[in-house]
Amino acid sequence: MKTRDHFGSKIGFILAAAGSAIGLGAIWKFPYMAGTNGGGVFVLLFILCTLLIGLPILLAEFIIGRKGQADAVTGFKKLAPKKPWFLIGWSGFFFSFIILSFYSVVGGWILSYLFRSITLSLNGSADNFYEDLFNTVISNPWEVLIGQGVFILLTLWIVSGGIKGGIEKASKWMMPLLLIFFVVLAIRSLTLDGAIEGVKFLLIPDWSYFTWETALLALGQAFFSLSVGVSGMITYASYLPKGTNLGNSALSVSLLNIGISIMAGLVIFPAVFALGFSPDAGPGLVFIILPAVFEQIIFGQFFLIIFFILLLFATLTSSISMLEIVVSIGIKSNYDRRKRAAWISGFLIFLVGIPSALSFGVLQDIKILDLSIFDFADFLTSSIGLPLGALFISIFAGFHFSKDDISKEIGSRAVLLNGWRIIVRYAAPVAILIVFIQGVMNVLK
């Protein structure tokens, strides 16, 4: 029987964990959230929330994962025998399954746009061309299902290879390429006439935009962009050797997440302002506004291809971590079953995702809480599953482990140790409850 796999290096783990966090949340959601919430004010609040709230919870998941040295369900059973904390692991299993079912739909959209950009069919001079194209893509049942299926196959191919041979290997080349592509795109965007206005919008806070709702949205963005709450980081950390410094790893992942998010803004907003588009276009910023922006730039078609490759990489690194959560719980300690479990899980996730894929077309009239099937799946996970999962993870880590336990994992400096315990015991749970209540209230209004 195969033994439990491990990451081969610290950098491999950091890149894999950063890849889990850096997905659509950083590249797709962050720019449009910043664009619709005042730019610089939102960015500043996002950075503060990431470092003060998100980072301590991320570290909590790392500690639980490495101490458990198992999948999330088994790990909690080992750390807290005969207590119901293992339900956190099953919660992560369920919500990861649902997240990937609709996340793969967006991955399919990206593949459709990448194919169109490569075949030079992603350009048009007609008014509303890109808006009409986006609506056409997401409402075409065959196109969305084929795109979703191909995206899941790519994810399965990587996860079935295991930790060293699959996830770590893929992360080691996808993440550096992602960073290189970002630098290339940012340089091109920043050299446009009038680009400085986009930089000012992104980096200089205009406090007239500050509201408590903006603060809550920034907290939610910081929280969800780090992928905490579904036990993904617990799962990855369970493959870590004892010598890895968890505090430095958590800080590295958080800073990479902040850096990529700001880089995404530096790619998009200078170009948006330079070419006279509005920064508050919302979720359509990437699929509707950005192609129109690149169309007006020299070598824009080339840079658009690079952008969608980059977006595909970022989406894949996140989907890999979600599938790994499901697979690790499914195989328990029988690592010979990895490939079989991965393919079965992927097939079931594809089936569950079909209603979300069709929710903008043939199933568009079906509503749950006045939301489309796709939007309801997003609400169920982002506004309920992740906050509650992170809440219980924070409480467990804060109250279950002694100071000696934590000192062995993150070092013995009293200020850092006591500060971390105060945040995960009190500050983080309060912040999570605020986000949770706000999210539910917004939908039930």
UniProtKB/TrEMBL annotation:
Signal peptide segment: none
This protein's UniProt keywords: Membrane, Symport, Transmembrane, Transmembrane helix, Transport
Membrane-spanning ranges: 12-30, 42-64, 85-111, 144-163, 175-196, 216-239, 251-277, 297-320, 341-363, 383-401, 422-441
Subcellular location: Membrane
Xref: SUPFAM superfamilies: SNF-like (SSF161070)
Membrane topology recorded in Swiss-Prot or TrEMBL: Multi-pass membrane protein
Domain of life of the organism encoding this protein: Bacteria
Family, similarity comment: Belongs to the sodium:neurotransmitter symporter (SNF) (TC 2.A.22) family.
Protein name per Swiss-Prot or TrEMBL: Transporter
Organism phylogeny: Bacteria, Bacillati, Bacillota, Bacilli, Bacillales
